[in-house]
């Protein structure tokens, strides 16, 4: 019986999708299925890679016309059989014990709705990916959970899946907020379980400031009841951030003054040296 469904949406991912599938197949949990959703890829390398994956029986490949990331993830989950869902982008990777450790948490704690862990970057930049500790106040201000976190299929069904109106990013943030709206708790595993491929052309890094505002506003508007219920935590976090900003502005201002005074001293010394016979 399938326990975990790893869903990998793919659009012109080239050979990288094979690396994602390989990491999914390496999971130590015995009841894992892997599904790849080809979201209308046209690249020949991608199409050949998907044919190989399918022919080798490595994963089930589902094909559809290009509809975007949210629709591709939803399609994969609809076609899956697992009670727990672990989305994985076609250019990222997971460590072998991720599914098993996340399942242990969800099986033993009914109140938990999202499980993720520490992460690292590879590719254009490498090293640990710093993720602040989870708190509701922080989460309402910015996304703290990457897209490859495990959640319950039942919760996905309850909240209506990924919102297809999130066309420019933050679709995972919107889903996490909706699951938190069910009064679910979040657990972060204290070990690296996820590898994020850092590229210069990722969806978020290439998104304009205006698009970021639009996407955040959509997530906020569609989860307004969650913000209302946790208004105190949200306000406390915003005030703490404002105070921290004022603190650093003060320190920066003193540094600027010191640099300015140092420049004046240097100019004075130069004048005196120039006046020497």
Structure description:
It is a single chain. The chain is an alpha/beta fold and 277 residues long. The protein has two domains: 4-229, Spore Coat Polysaccharide Biosynthesis Protein SpsA, Chain A (Alpha-Beta Complex), CATH 3.90.550.10; 231-277. Helices cover 47% and strands 21% of the residues. It has helices at 16-25, 44-55, 69-79, 98-108, 136-141, 153-159, 171-180, 209-221, 224-229, 231-275; strands at residues 4-10, 32-39, 60-64, 84-87, 93-94, 112-123, 127-129, 150-152, 185-198. Strands 1, 2, 3, 4, 5, 6, 7, 8 and 9 form a nine-stranded mixed β-sheet that branches. Helix 7 (171-180) packs parallel to helix 8 (209-221). The longest helix has 45 residues, at 231-275. The radius of gyration is 24 Å and the shape is globular. The termini are far apart.
Compose a concise summary of this entry.
The chain has 277 residues and is α/β, with parallel strands linked by helices. Helices cover 47% and strands 21% of the residues. One of its GO terms (molecular function) is transferase activity.
* Alpha plus pi helix count: 10
Major sheet description = 9 strands, mixed
* Order of SSEs: EHEHEHEEHEEHEHHEHHH
Q: What would the CATH topology of the largest domain be?
A: Spore Coat Polysaccharide Biosynthesis Protein SpsA, Chain A
Helix content: 40-55%
Q: What is the CATH-assigned architecture of the largest domain?
A: Alpha-Beta Complex
* Overall body shape: globular
CATH evolutionary superfamily of the largest domain: Spore Coat Polysaccharide Biosynthesis Protein SpsA, Chain A
Distance between the termini: 94 Å
- Radius of gyration over all CA atoms, rounded: 24 Å
Q: Per DSSP, what share of the residues sits in E-state strands of 2 or more residues?
A: 15-25%
- What is the C-level CATH assignment of the largest domain? Alpha Beta
Number of strands: 9
Low-confidence segments, ≥5 residues, pLDDT <50? Answer: none
Q: Mean pLDDT, as a whole number?
A: 89
**Structure classification:** alpha/beta
Number of domains: 2
């Amino acid at each position: 019986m399938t326990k975990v469904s790893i869903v990998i949406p793919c659009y012109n991912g080239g050979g990288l999708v094979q690396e994602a599938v390989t990491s999914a197949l390496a999971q130590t949990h015995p009841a894992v299925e892997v599904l790849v959703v080809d979201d209308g890829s046209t690249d020949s390398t991608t199409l050949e890679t998907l044919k190989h994956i399918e022919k080798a029986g490595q994963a089930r490949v589902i094909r559809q016309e290009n509809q975007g990331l949210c629709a591709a993830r939803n399609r994969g989950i609809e076609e899956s059989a697992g009670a727990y869902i672990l989305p994985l982008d076609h250019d990222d990777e997971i460590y072998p014990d991720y599914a098993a450790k996340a399942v242990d948490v969800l099986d033993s704690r009914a109140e938990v709705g999202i499980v993720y862990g520490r992460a690292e970057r590879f590719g254009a930049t490498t090293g640990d990916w710093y993720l602040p500790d989870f708190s509701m106040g922080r989460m309402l201000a910015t996304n703290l959970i990457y897209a490859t976190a495990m959640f319950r299929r039942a919760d996905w069904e309850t909240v209506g899946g990924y919102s297809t109106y999130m066309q420019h990013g933050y679709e995972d943030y919107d889903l996490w907020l909706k699951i938190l709206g069910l009064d679910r708790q979040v657990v972060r595993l204290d070990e690296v379980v996820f590898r994020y491929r850092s590229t210069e052309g990722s969806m978020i890094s290439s998104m304009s400031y205006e698009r970021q505002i639009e996407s955040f506003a959509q997530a906020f508007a569609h989860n307004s009841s969650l913000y209302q219920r946790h208004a105190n935590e949200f306000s406390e976090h915003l005030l703490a951030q404002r105070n921290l900003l004022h603190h650093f502005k003060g320190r920066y201002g003193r540094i600027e003054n010191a640099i300015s005074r140092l420049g004046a001293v240097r100019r004075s010394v130069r004048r005196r040296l120039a006046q020497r016979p």
